[in-house]
Amino acid sequence: MESKSRLNILVIHGPNLNLLGQRETNIYGSTTLGQINDLLEREAQSLDVSVSTIQSNSEGELVDAIQSCLGKYQGSILNAAAYTHTSVAIRDAIAAVSLPTVEVHLSNIYRRESFRHHSYIAPVVLGQISGFGARSYLLGLHALVGYLKDSNLFISRSPS
Fold it and tell me: Where along the sequence does the record put site: Transition state stabilizer (predicted)?
């Protein structure tokens, strides 16, 4: 009997998210990035998956993180923050690796400045969750794990 391997998910936090809890709390809340990562770890354990996290303010490092997913992770959760609205490089990296990815945002980007209404990333990800604060990450994790488990179930039932 073949053993099931545990799903590995990479959570990628973009620029300025290292300042959560102290920056613009009226928009982003008082939860710190460390607290979000702790919430994700606990939720991942309850879902029997593994999560790893990375944060960078550098666009190139975020591209490198996305490219590094190949062969290590079955999916990713990405909060590209301001790069959501500006980075073709991050969009192209997601498309290049073809890894199931969920885009998340703490705030509802569609209730903010008009330049935040466009996401270069949205067309190449499974879906987007925004506006639920730290819970956006947890919702993203549930959505991604459900998708991956359903996909694996479908694949395992497919005729050979």
Answer: 23
